[in-house]
Predict the 3D structure of the following.
Amino acid sequence: MTNYLTVDGRDYTMFAASGGRTLVVTSTCPHRGGPLHLGRLDARRARIVCPWHELGTPVRKLVAGALPAVRRGTTMTVVVDAPEHGEVVTLHRLTSPAMTACGHAARAERAP
Amino acid sequence: MTLQQTAPPADAWTLPSSLFKECLVRYGTNPLFVDSEEWTFESNPYRRPVRPQVLRYMDFETPLTRDQILDYSSLAANRLLLNVYEHDLVFLPEEGFDGIHDDFGRFYAPETRALAEVIRPVLERHVFSFLDDEVDVSGRWTRAELEAYLVALPEEAKKADNVAVRTIRESSNPHHAAVTYMIQFAGDFLSEASAMARNLLGNYGPAQSELFKIVIDEYGYGVHDTKHSTLFERLLTSIGLAPKPHAYWQFYLTSSLLLNNYFHFVCKNHDRFFRYLGALYYTEATLSDICDRVGRLLREVFGPDADLRYFGEHVHIDEHHGRMALDKIIRPVLDLYGDAVIPEIVRGVEEFRLLAEIADDDFAAQVAWSDGGPRYKSLHDPVYDAIAGGRVECPVQRFVEPRGELSVTHVHDGDELCHIVSGTMRFVTGHDRYELLHGGEGTVIRSNRLHGAIIESEECVYDIHSIGDYEKCLSSPVT
């Protein structure tokens, strides 16, 4: 099952948001590009803490920047903006419990 | 003296359970909907059995999950719902109206329609709520993403395997499988575009007129010979089926009813209008390729005499309808109402896709069930031995029925074993498909598989064992 997406060098991961929803959010820390998909959840301050420098990204910011996606059963369709010959790769990656969503197959559609 | 009147508090009103149940039983026991003595109804479009004797035991007030969507409750609710929706449609037979004039009155009676409207929202919630769990639109969608997503759908569909076509090709009886497939379409195609036409009424700008153009195509420009439902009637006639609405009511799979009902659901409930646009686009944009594949298959199966103009017409016109749905309806709607309606449009696409997947799998399983008649009959002995030997304990019901007693088609939620104690039963697994069961014989009945029966001896005594899972009965001691 895929849970990770790389679009022309930009990384995204599946994120289990509240209400049982699964979002596709950036896995790159805005500070120095650390792996947010391996971060831990600071529930009190509602943020994901990057394992590199312990800086937190608010969950609401991740949610606001979620890629447009639709889940149908266990299949997720994500619309991505990539140059014509840019690489789009879906794969499975180890993620932290903070990110864990039930596994959904991901399929990326390339925006024109 | 001055009277001051204040408006009563606005409370959300919910239908009391007792009132729903009363209306449900009253509606279901309409003489048009009781059990029949025939398998088909070729001369009466109002006759649609719903097995009302079981309704009082059903819980329609709890929504079904995806895993339950092919269970008996779904079949029962979907049969009821199709009747409910079709009180809005005009059905008149081409012949024999005098003999069924009373039924015409019953089907359209004010009391019948009132009861239908009372039970409709509960039944809709029962069978469609699972879509809320199974489909989720997330992230920030703008027009650009929607365009990319919609444009990609037809190309993706062309590359996909067509489950129904493959099922028919691989069936041990492709002719029967193809007939079964056409029967699934008959429930919708013989009144084609009726659900869609619900969206022609009212006032909502240029998109309304563009939708009207699609409907005009479906209705053959007012020329009856080119009306799509007429083309489908000719197809049915050419392959030996009765071209009459709901002649094969008893052989509609649950998923076929669900798919047909979905369009009525999103077209009658106008708060789902934008969802309808998504479902409309997906249907129109992918149907050309589907009809091409199905048409070629039907030519292989039915030979040169089959009238396949229905599929040929759709191969041509749906290239245009897909483009019209996007260029002339969805894009102008976005211009007027903005990005806020995009999630609903996307939901409509994916809800329809999910229902179509469920229908494909249901059809494939039903064909395998029909093809497997002799095998499931042969499984009776080892399963019955396990029960008779005490290795399996399960609930059992005994039935004693006279010659001609017809068991209207239905499904069970788990596997069952039918054991004939004495007499003869014609066990029906599809239109014109059956196994004869004599005393001492029987058959495994697979869960969620449509079947019926008719007694062929003076009397038949048979037991139905609720075994749950027949495979477990074939292994070591199980309780």
User: Anything to note?
Assistant: Chain B touches chain A at residues 66, 134-142, 144-149, 151-152, 346-347, 349-350, 353-354, 357 (CB under 8 Å). The radius of gyration of chain B is 24 Å. The CA atoms of residues 21 and 444 of chain B lie 33 Å apart. The beta strands of chain B are 135-138, 396-402, 406-410, 415-422, 424-430, 433-438, 442-445, 451-455, 459-468.
